[in-house]
Amino acid sequence: MNWTEWRAEFPILERTTYLNSCSLGALSRSALARIETFHEEWHTYGASAWYERWMDRLAELRTRVGAMIGAQDGEIALAASTSAALSVLGSAFDYSKRNRVVLAELDFPTVAYQWMVRPGVEVVRVPSDDGVSIDAERMAAAIDERTAIVSISHVFFTTGAIQEMGPIAEAARRHGAFFIIDAYQSAGQVPIDVETLGADALVTGPLKWLLGGPGLAYLYVRDEWLHSLQPTITGWFAARRQFDFDIHDFEFRDDARRFELGTPSLPTVHSALGGQDIIDRIGVVPIRERNSDLTEHLLVRLEAAGLQFRGAADASARSALVMIPHEDPVGAVQRLADHGIIVDSRPGYVRVSPHFYNTHAELDRFVDVLAGGRG
Ligand SMILES: Cc1ncc(COP(=O)(O)O)c(C=O)c1O
């Protein structure tokens, strides 16, 4: 693979040293072409583009995302955001018999908020021993007959660590709890197979490593759950006979689209397909290899410059989201931006996230400027 050839796809790389893909993946020419097609179809067909073209695009996106994560046809729904997807999914459970939701102290806030506002639900947050990931056995031990739902990130947004899932999935299954994985920070940089992970549901979206932009999320729900889960938040995209416009009878669709609500963001559907075109052409396995190489190079350079790194001790559990402790992260991010280097910060840390289109030389420049040396 000639990785540097891919750089021409991403105009931002000509303008900046872009190292913030865990916040927002770079916009590609391929995504722009898809968006232009959408606009042309809008000009040409007007509303009939829905039937002539756009319903097929929604189907294409569901199929492509499903294929990437090892899902079967009919197991993917589109949502406006992870928050929306989890709200609909969470509305489908009866918490009167099992009232606990077990999640991880390191999860993204929206995951906890879902259950914190739900009347009668007790949220159990499993702490992290090392502040980097969660001891899978400890999480498994927190699951019992009172547990309705278990939820955890595949890659943590504040540490980049890839979470071990086996014991958690096994405990959830043994106790009859529903297992949800938040793969927002892994899809597109770390291979995902919903079977291997043992997920009952998985949420992710195109914004970051999938290079598809904001405005959409993806929800996988395992086929065997589809009939028993009836959301109590819904919309016409979930209706079995959507285009009957029948206000008296409502029946859920049989497939995962029963978790959809209303009209999805079509510009994002198109940019997401453009990003997905690139991810599928390269493949997530080669991307993972490339990103590991970039990450390990960065860690070597950080160490040589006397800078720390906070993340998984084992390289196989590290992703391309790298946290660097810093006493003034906001100031450091600004100084880097003054040098044309785009990264971001979280309290106490500079956060840097190279993707396959970045180079060793860009990472070297980042370290030089961060360490206050050349540049
Ligand atoms: C781990 C994780 N989950 C979810 C989200 C996004 O949630 P939403 O789609 O509701 O904005 C993010 C975004 O930063 C994230 O990092």
Report on the structure:
This protein has 375 residues and is of the alpha/beta class. The chain has two domains: 3-22 and 283-370, Aspartate Aminotransferase, domain 1 (Alpha-Beta Complex), CATH 3.90.1150; 31-279, 3-Layer(aba) Sandwich (Aspartate Aminotransferase, domain 2). Helix content is 38%, strand content 13%. The chain contains 13 helices and twelve strands. It has helices at 12-15, 29-45, 49-69, 82-90, 109-116, 136-141, 166-175, 194-197, 223-226, 266-282, 284-304, 329-338, 360-370, and strands spanning 17-18, 76-79, 100-104, 122-126, 147-153, 178-182, 201-204, 217-221, 322-325, 341-342, 344-346, 349-352. A seven-stranded mixed sheet has the order 2-8-7-6-5-3-4, with helices on both faces. It is globular and about 65 Å long.
Features:
single chain; 375 residues; Aspartate Aminotransferase, domain 1; seven-stranded mixed beta sheet; binds pyridoxal-5'-phosphate
One letter per element, helices H and strands E, the order comes to HEHHEHEHEHEHEHEEHHHEHEEEH
* Assigned CATH superfamily of the largest domain: Type I PLP-dependent aspartate aminotransferase-like (Major domain)
Instruction: Tell me the fraction of residues in β-strands, as a range.
Output: 5-15%
The average pLDDT is 97
What's the helix and strand layout?
Elements: H1 12-15, E1 17-18, H2 29-45, H3 49-69, E2 76-79, H4 82-90, E3 100-104, H5 109-116, E4 122-126, H6 136-141, E5 147-153, H7 166-175, E6 178-182, H8 194-197, E7 201-204, E8 217-221, H9 223-226, H10 266-282, H11 284-304, E9 322-325, H12 329-338, E10 341-342, E11 344-346, E12 349-352, H13 360-370
Parallel strand pairs: 1-10, 3-4, 3-5, 5-6, 6-7
Antiparallel strand pairs: 2-8, 7-8, 9-12, 11-12
The structure holds pyridoxal-5'-phosphate.
